[in-house]
Write a structure and sequence with these properties.
Elements (H helix, E strand, L loop, with lengths): L9 E7 L2 E8 L2 E6 L18 H18 L17 H10 L8 E2 H7 L6 H9 L12 E2 L12 H10 L7
Parallel strand pairs: 4-5
Antiparallel strand pairs: 1-2, 2-3
The structure holds a DNA duplex.
DNA sequence: TAAGTGCGTCGTT
DNA sequence: AACGACGCACTTA
C-alpha cells in the first residue's frame, strides 16, 4: 500500500529547550517528527541496530533545523524529507507550506488557491493535519480566516507558542 | 460585536 | 457514505 512499509525505520530523540522530540527516518530521509510526549512517557525507543552514517548526518541537520525553528528562525539546511506516506494532494500542500517563511502566515483558503484548488479549502486543513513533520514543515503558519487560530494536530498550545516565537499575532 | 447554524465543497478513509 | 485543523452568508442576542 504505502511504499515505506517494510523498510527499516530509525527513531532518534532530539533534545530541545521545549522537550524531547522524536525524529523518524527511513532510508530515504526524515519521515516523521513527534512532539515531546506529555508526561515523560519515557518512550526511549533505543535503536538496536547501528545507525547508518547518512542517518546520523540527517539527524544532525534535523536537530539543528529544529532548534532554529523553535527559536523563531528559518530552519537552514534540512535533511532530505521522505514524504512518501502522503497522497499527491498532501505532498502538494506540504510543499506549499515549506514556502511560508518564519513570521509569515497564510490562510487555509489562501493555500488552497496557491496550489490551484481554490475550493479544496477543507481538504487543505486535512492535509495540514496529516503533516508528518510538523514544525519543520510549518503547518503552524496556516491560520483560519480572520486570522483566527484554526486547529493544530499537536495541540493548540504548540501552535500558539510557535507563532509567538516568530512574532506572529492572531485573533482570538 | 460575538456566537451559533446551515450549507457548499472536496480529499481521504 | 461519512467525516474534517474551512469559508461564507445569515440569524440572534
Amino acid at each position: 500500500m504505502n511504499p515505506t512499509c517494510g523498510t527499516q525505520l530509525f527513531e532518534l530523540p532530539i533534545e530541545t529547550t521545549e522537550g524531547k522530540f522524536i525524529a523518524r527516518y527511513s532510508e530515504k530521509g526524515l519521515s516523521g517528527l513527534e512532539f515531546p510526549a506529555g508526561a515523560d512517557s519515557s518512550r526511549a525507543k533505543t535503536v538496536k541496530a547501528a545507525i547508518p552514517r547518512p542517518i546520523r548526518n540527517w539527524h544532525r541537520a534535523a536537530s539543528q533545523a529544529l532548534a532554529r525553528v523553535l527559536a523563531g528562525k528559518a530552519p537552514g539546511k534540512l535533511p532530505p524529507l521522505d514524504l512518501s506516506s502522503g497522497t499527491d494532494f498532501q505532498r502538494c500542500v506540504w510543499t506549499a507550506l515549506q514556502k511560508i517563511m518564519p513570521g509569515q502566515t497564510r490562510g487555509y483558503g489562501e493555500v488552497a488557491r496557491l496550489i490551484g484548488r481554490p475550493k479544496a479549502v477543507r481538504a487543505v486543513g486535512g492535509a495540514c493535519g496529516a503533516n508528518p513533520i510538523p514544525v519543520l514543515i510549518p503547518c503552524h503558519r496556516v491560520l483560519a480566516a480572520n486570522r483566527k487560530l484554526g486547529g493544530f494536530s499537536g495541540g493548540l498550545d504548540w501552535k500558539r507558542a510557535l507563532l509567538a516565537r516568530e512574532g506572529v499575532s492572531f485573533s482570538r
